[in-house]
């Protein structure tokens, strides 16, 4: 089954856009957590990256699709959101409690568009899986 959300985040205020994006990210994290619970022998994200079984792909911006772990494994690539949601689920499965997707929002000075960078927050630390994968 494929599920598709079409969200027009840019029509929301910055505060509400961040809330909506966090909710969507958390949905993908929970889906990944369920997969990892049912498939506990799934190799670690960074192990798959270092072995070349998962590569990073660039998101398509305003119309990008987010992928769960099974889809990433089947296509062999993931964008930044996919990596973050996999990593958060993986850390939670390993017993980390204070871990969540973190959204850094900046405004493009030329276009005035909001740009959301998605990262992993573990306690007070920020991890960027896309930099480790690149």
Describe the overall structure.
This protein is an alpha+beta fold and 134 residues long. 43% of the residues lie in helices and 19% in strands. The chain is built from 5 helices and 5 strands; from the N terminus they run ααβαβαβββα. The chain has helices spanning 14-38, 45-50, 69-75, 80-93, 129-133; strands spanning 55-56, 77-78, 99-107, 114-122, 125-127. Strand 3 and strand 4 (114-122) form a beta hairpin. Helix 1 packs across helix 4.
Give a quick summary of the entry.
The protein has about 130 residues and is an alpha+beta fold. It has helices at about 15-40, 45-50, 70-75, 80-95, 130-134, and strands spanning about 55, 75-80, 100-105, 115-120, 125.
How are the SSEs ordered, and which strands pair?
Elements: H1 14-38, H2 45-50, E1 55-56, H3 69-75, E2 77-78, H4 80-93, E3 99-107, E4 114-122, E5 125-127, H5 129-133
Parallel strand pairs: 1-2
Antiparallel strand pairs: 3-4, 4-5
The computed structural class is alpha+beta
Q: Which strand order spans the largest sheet, edge to edge or round the barrel? A: 3-4-5
Q: Indicate the percent of residues in helices.
A: 40-55%
Number of distinct helices: 5
Count every beta strand, where a strand is a DSSP E run of 2 or more residues.
5
The mean pLDDT is 88
Radius of gyration: 15 Å
Bulk shape: globular
Largest sheet composition: 3 strands, antiparallel
Secondary-structure element pattern, one letter each: HHEHEHEEEH
Total tally of structural domains: 1
Distance between the termini: 30 Å
Question: How much strand?
Answer: 15-25%
pLDDT under 50 segments (min length 5)?
Answer: none
């Amino acid at each position: 089954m494929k599920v598709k959300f079409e969200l027009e985040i840019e029509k929301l205020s910055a505060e509400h856009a961040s809330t909506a994006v966090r909710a969507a990210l958390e949905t993908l994290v929970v889906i990944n957590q369920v997969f990892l619970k049912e498939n506990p022998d799934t190799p670690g994200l960074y192990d798959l990256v270092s072995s070349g079984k998962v590569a990073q792909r660039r998101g398509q911006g305003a119309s990008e699709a987010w992928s769960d772990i099974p889809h990433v494994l089947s296509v062999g690539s993931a964008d930044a959101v996919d990596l973050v949601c996999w990593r958060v689920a993986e850390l939670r499965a390993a017993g980390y409690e204070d871990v969540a997707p973190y959204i850094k929002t900046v405004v493009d000075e030329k276009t005035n568009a909001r740009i959301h960078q998605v990262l992993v927050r573990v306690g007070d630390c920020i991890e960027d899986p896309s930099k480790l994968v690149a």
